[in-house]
């Protein structure tokens, strides 16, 4: 008799262990991100807020190459390319060698990510269609995994590994959908020649990494040239990061111990992404003067669209898509889990920060008249989602702790929890 399908069932032990190591890195990065955002908010609302704006407006870089960008632009165009490079590596790793290479396992987080994109976009568009600001429809569609995991770390939750893996994969697929949206809908002036020229260094980079070349002095200039040409083409430069990540092979050419090249690059660049790139971007992007914006900014259609899109739209989209997968596949939740767990995770998905702020800048322009409303909406919606998710998951925390304690006892000398061995049996 076949085993009934289970939603949020355990994956394999190697994947669970890898995800655990990865989540610890992202959690530290999330705490740094939150800290950078808090510093930016305090500075932007202090008597010295003019100095904060002046710092982000400092221009550096060679003008001859059209790279004389402000520090804020370098953070969003340059540093976030590192973030999306790591996201590209992780996404390829999940679908090539991870548990999600199985379409049955991939269907749930992919469906949840799509649902969590569509519903917030519909809510934002409905509130802004008559106001002429519907161009920002994609702002509330992304989940910030680092911020979400920082919330989990603060509330000390013992969320089961399968749910943590789902949250991570949901966010990674969100990033893919977001970068696709950026490339298609937020490219105003496309210059085909630089974009075509970018294929040359990208192809050379791909050839080298396919041959397992790790020499930074060969790969880094090609990556930088690809980034520069994509930037010159009018396509947002973070797209280059994703393309470079997709070019890196996941599987080792010869069998043997040690990580593959994609995992090797992840270990090298994830600390740079989580510890430097994202927090620096958050510092320059999150600073909004609530004092200057006034109370009316909270009632603006853009602000309301972002807040409701993140808090309500993400929850309805992720939870609804999960229910639909369960309904049409007749699968059941894994043993010990309930729909309250899924609800808490869905609300947590409403923490949209890094990519939401980036799309807000692309939609309305940094420093525009709507820029303050976008930031207030993203911060308010993310904070509301974090608080409500914390309450829900805190209620479930005692049960998570008991489940985790039972699994920790149930292991043997090989260091692999017996629940994973029984699953394979």
TrEMBL record:
Family assignment? Belongs to the NhaA Na(+)/H(+) (TC 2.A.33) antiporter family.
The UniProt keywords, alphabetically, are: Antiport, Cell membrane, Ion transport, Membrane, Sodium, Sodium transport, Transmembrane, Transmembrane helix, Transport
Question: What organism does this protein naturally occur in?
Answer: Pseudonocardia halophobica
Gene designation: nhaA
By its UniProt entry, which InterPro entries does this protein fall under?
Na/H_antiporter_dom_sf, NhaA
One Gene Ontology term, aspect cellular component: plasma membrane
Localization terms from the record: Cell inner membrane; Cell membrane
What is the protein name stated in its UniProt record? Na(+)/H(+) antiporter NhaA
Record's function text: Na(+)/H(+) antiporter that extrudes sodium in exchange for external protons.
One Pfam match: Na_H_antiport_1
Query: Where exactly are the transmembrane stretches of this chain?
Result: 27-44, 64-87, 108-129, 135-155, 167-186, 192-209, 216-232, 238-255, 276-299, 305-325, 337-364, 376-395
Protein's GO biological process: regulation of pH
Q: Which reaction does it catalyse?
A: Na(+)(in) + 2 H(+)(out) = Na(+)(out) + 2 H(+)(in)
- Give the membrane topology: Multi-pass membrane protein
């Amino acid at each position: 008799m076949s085993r009934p399908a289970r939603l949020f069932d355990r994956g394999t032990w190697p994947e669970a262990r890898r995800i655990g190591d990865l989540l610890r890195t992202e959690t530290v990065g999330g705490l740094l991100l939150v800290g950078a955002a808090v510093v930016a908010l305090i500075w932007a609302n202090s008597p010295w807020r003019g100095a904060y704006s002046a710092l982000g407006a400092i221009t550096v870089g060679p003008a001859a190459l059209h790279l004389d960008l402000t520090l804020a632009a370098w953070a969003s165009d340059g540093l976030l390319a590192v973030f999306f490079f790591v996201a590209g590596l992780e996404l390829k790793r999940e679908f090539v060698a991870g548990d999600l290479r199985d379409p049955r396992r991939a269907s749930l987080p992919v469906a949840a990510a799509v649902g969590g994109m569509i519903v917030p976009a519909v809510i934002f568009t409905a509130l802004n269609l008559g106001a002429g600001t519907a161009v920002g429809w994609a702002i509330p569609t992304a989940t910030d995994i680092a911020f979400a995991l920082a919330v989990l770390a603060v509330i000390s939750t013992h969320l089961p590994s399968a749910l943590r893996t789902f949250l991570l994969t949901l966010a990674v697929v969100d990033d893919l959908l977001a970068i696709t949206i950026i490339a298609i809908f937020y490219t105003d002036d496309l210059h085909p020649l630089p974009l075509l020229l970018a294929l040359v260094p990208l192809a050379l980079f791909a050839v080298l990494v396919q041959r397992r070349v790790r020499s930074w002095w060969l790969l880094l200039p090609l990556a930088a040239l690809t980034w520069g040409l994509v930037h010159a083409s009018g396509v947002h430069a973070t797209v280059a990061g994703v393309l470079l990540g997709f070019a890196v092979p996941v599987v080792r050419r010869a069998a043997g111990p040690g990580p593959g090249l994609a995992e090797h690059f992840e270990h090298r660049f994830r600390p740079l992404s989580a510890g430097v790139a994202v927090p620096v971007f958050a510092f320059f992007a999150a600073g909004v003067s609530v004092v200057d914006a006034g109370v009316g900014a909270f009632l603006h259609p853009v602000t309301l669209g972002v807040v409701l899109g993140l808090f309500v739209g993400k929850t309805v989209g992720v939870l609804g898509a999960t229910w639909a997968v369960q309904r049409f596949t007749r699968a059941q939740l894994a043993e010990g889990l309930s729909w309250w767990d899924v609800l808490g995770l869905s609300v947590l998905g409403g923490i949209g920060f890094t990519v939401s702020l980036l799309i807000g800048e692309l939609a309305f322009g940094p420093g525009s008249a709507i820029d303050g409303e976008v930031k207030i909406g993203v911060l308010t919606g993310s904070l509301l989602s974090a608080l409500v998710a914390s309450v829900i998951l805190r209620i479930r925390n005692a049960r998570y702790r008991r489940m985790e304690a039972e699994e920790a006892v149930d292991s043997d000398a090989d260091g692999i929890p017996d629940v994973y061995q029984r699953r394979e049996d």
